[in-house]
Design a protein that fits this description.
about 25% helix; about 180 residues; alpha+beta; five-stranded antiparallel β-sheet; 4 helices
Amino acid sequence: MNRKIAICIPLSKIFLKETLELYNNLDEKFNLSFMKNKLCRPHITLFGGSTNKLEKIKKELSKIKISETNRKIDYLGMGMFVNDKATFYLRFSSEKIFLEIRKKLITSTGSWFKIENILQNKMWIPKSSIIHNELSIKDKSFIKVLKFLNTWKFSKKNFLIEEITVIDFTEFEHELVSFKI
């Protein structure tokens, strides 16, 4: 069966807790709940596409191990893609480990029918969406949301990679499995 799959690094510990708190604040103050209502943890998508070889991909992922010294990811701030409906995101440092995992996934022979365009090498940036497809720059609340996000501070400026997850987004986004790395 063909499935749309994403390979992701979930946010962890304090950074995860504070991102979920941000989701709650966006919902309560501005009725922006798309990301909050997903059935998966906030994450950085490393790679994704269409496949019918999910078991092979999971087996490859279960073998990935990262040394303790290569697990730190730095938070760089917030960003935004402006379309009809804007996407706001948390931006992270582009660590060598991301590129190594992405290279392994890209070169896994015969595992992918199609790779998502935004996950191609030239387009990809390490980010975690916080608002997606809910807010237009024409909305009256747009500036208020910008001001609110500008005041949001995380108590830590980094987190450690602890696991890698497989998310199925064929019909709706949900976490299938997670591996400690």
